[in-house]
Amino acid sequence: MIINGRTRPTAVIGWPIAQSLSPVMHNAAYESLGLNWACIPLGVPDNRALLAFTEAARALPFVGFNVTMPHKQAMLALCDETATLAQLAGAVNTVHCVDGQLIGYNTDGRGLLESLQTDAGFDPAGRSIAVIGAGGAAGAAVTACILARAGRITIVNRNAGRAESLLDRVRGSLRSIAAEALPLEPSAAGSVREADLIINATPVGMAADDPSPIPGEWMREGQLVYDMVYQRSGTALAEAAHSAGARAVTGLGMLVAQGALAIDIWMGDANGQTRAPRDVMRAAAAAELAGQAAATDGGSL
Ligand code: NAP
């Protein structure tokens, strides 16, 4: 990659940011597409820094930027316009900078759908889905399930009020989809066990010694368990899923797809002719992840 006077910046902002796979993944895509863009990681530790960065992004020639934890929800209010999917999810992970305006999107939900299809051959239409968590990633998962016309959505969260709030936010878009919000307690076991797909949208599993976010008895043969955690395979959730006879998939494909969809937005290709190269991005992300795991002698891929 050659950076010169015509290079346009993109960024990934969050805190902490050192382990982010986005810069290598994005820069590999730009190179493959022949785009004179460069993605830089920017550590944005707090709201003050987030405000300062968004003002800079309005004034400088940014193509756009990705937003990661913990700023996805705060970013929603800082955009000049937001896509309906981002409003429903309650979070913005992709911003397009257009004539000094910040246009907010959420590509996590569509990224999840793309990964479910590519990595698991799973179509949520008419199926029963349990989402564990009620934060930004869970909001994106729930909107994805609505978009894909799921049959039933169960939101299960440690803080039951937050699960209710998420359900309230999307209620008007559910149409014929059945939905419920439950606390992460034994009373949720039946609904989770009946689901065709369980999505872990909590960070539980990121640390090597994390337990499974749900008990093994809540899973069964024939189920698909999608773990949004992508930093490690062989999480306690994946192991419990395998023991129960379920199939487990890590969130790496979702990470790649949400990034690719962001690039698709920034390229503004209305015909959908030029798509970000998912295979190139996945190879770059997987190599970076393997390098990080080797360096820390910690997680595995
Ligand atoms: P968030 O907004 O902070 O929400 C976290 C959710 O996890 C909350 O519902 C929280 O419950 C729950 N939670 C946290 N710790 C828990 C614990 N020990 N036990 C049970 N529940 C717990 O975070 P987020 O942005 O939604 O991200 C969640 C995860 O998804 C992160 O690991 C992130 O890396 C991953 N993610 C992956 C992708 C991908 O592309 N693969 C994309 C987006 C996000 P309470 O409400 O009770 O606190």
Search tags:
Rossmann fold; six-stranded parallel β-sheet; alpha/beta; 301 residues; six-stranded mixed β-sheet; binds NADP nicotinamide-adenine-dinucleotide phosphate
Bound heterogens, unique: NADP nicotinamide-adenine-dinucleotide phosphate
The CATH architecture of the largest domain is 3-Layer(aba) Sandwich
Average of pLDDT:
95
Rg: 19 Å
Task: Give the tally of β-strands.
Answer: 12
Overall structural class, as computed from helix and strand content, comes to alpha/beta
The CATH topology of the largest domain is given as: Rossmann fold
Most strands sheet = 6 strands, mixed
Described by its quaternary structure, the protein is single chain
For the biggest β-sheet, the strand order reads: 2-1-3-5-6-4
H/E topology pattern:
EHEHEHEHEEHEHEHEHEEHEHH
